[in-house]
Structure formats: C-alpha cells, structure tokens
Write a structure and sequence with these properties.
- The chain contains two helices and eight strands, in the order βββαβββαββ.
- By secondary structure, it is of the alpha/beta class.
- The protein has one domain (2-90, 97-141): D-tyrosyl-tRNA(Tyr) deacylase (D-tyrosyl-trna(Tyr) Deacylase, Chain: A), CATH 3.50.80.10.
- Strands 1, 2, 3, 6, 7 and 8 form a six-stranded mixed β-sheet that branches.
- β4 and β5 (62-64) form a beta hairpin.
- α1 (39-51) crosses α2 (104-121).
- The N and C termini lie close together (11 Å).
- This is D-aminoacyl-tRNA deacylase.
- One of its GO terms (molecular function) is D-tyrosyl-tRNA(Tyr) deacylase activity.
- Its main location: cytoplasm.
- A motif (Gly-cisPro motif, important for rejection of L-amino acids) lies at residues 142-143.
C-alpha cells in the first residue's frame, strides 16, 4: 500500500459542495491499495503512520506522533482519503498508467478495512468517500509531506 502523509493544521474533504470529513491538527493521509496488497500491508501502513514522529515537541524537534500530538495524552486527527493515482507509473509517455493500482473492488475493500482499523485504535478519524470526485482542502503544517510504501510480502 502507498500512503502520502501531510502534517496539517486543518483539513477537510468536500463532495458536491458538502463537507464529508474534517480535522483540526493532525495528518491527512492519502492512501492507495496496489495489486497484491492485503490486510497485512494495510496494518503495517497504519502502524507506521500512527507512530511516525513528525510533530514538534516543546523544543521544536520532530519528536511526537499523531497519537501524542500535544504531549498531553490527546491525539491529533486523521483524515483518510482514498487516492488511486498514487500508484501512477509515469515512466513512459505523457499519460500515467494506473495498472499497479488495485482493482476498484479490492481497493475499496482494503480502504474500508484500513479506515475500520484506524477507528478501532485512534479516537479521531474522518474520511473522504471512496471513488467520489472529492475536493481536498488543507493547511499543510511545515510543510511536512512524507511518502510511505509498504510492499507486499
């Protein structure tokens, strides 16, 4: 699975002008299932995402995870948005190929699994809508943007 994490001060997702997901400080996670991915890759991606120390501590060093965002035992938000275009292969020609992305049914199943697992372990989870035309608004904090890839196997 692929994740693109953005540390945000706030973020929201709109579908047809309606806000379907919103967070304050936390992580915007764009996620993509690839061919051959399973729940094991989803679990590894979520674990890495929750423990990644990319938030500043009291001396300004990136030393906190989204789970201990303010150092007081409270968590930052997670906004999880499906984005199959993360699997784009742009090596040939000018039109990206998306053949490495999981088929829609598999992608949706793994996205739903990922969201359910996130909600089971993290108290503040919002989402977009799978396969919808979404507008994502964010205030990137830093900016901090990190790619994560969990390969099958």
């Amino acid at each position: 699975m692929i994740g693109l994490l953005q540390r945000v001060r706030e973020a929201r997702v709109e579908v047809a002008g309606e806000i379907v997901g919103r967070i304050g400080p936390g992580l915007l996670a764009l996620v993509c299932a690839e061919q051959g991915d399973s729940e094991a890759q989803a679990d590894k991606l979520l674990a890495k995402m929750l423990k990644l120390r990319i938030f500043s501590d009291e001396v300004g060093k990136m030393n906190r995870s989204v789970q201990d965002l303010d150092g007081q035992g409270t968590c930052g938000g997670l906004l999880i948005v499906s984005q199959f275009t993360l699997a784009a292969d742009t090596r040939g020609g000018n039109r990206p190929s998306f053949t490495q992305a999981a088929p829609p049914a598999q992608g949706e199943r793994l996205y739903d699994y990922f969201v359910a697992q996130a909600r089971a372990v993290h108290p503040m989870v919002a989402t977009g809508r799978f396969a919808a035309d979404m507008q994502v608004h964010l205030v990137n904090d830093g900016p901090v943007t990190l790619p994560l890839r969990i390969a099958p196997g």
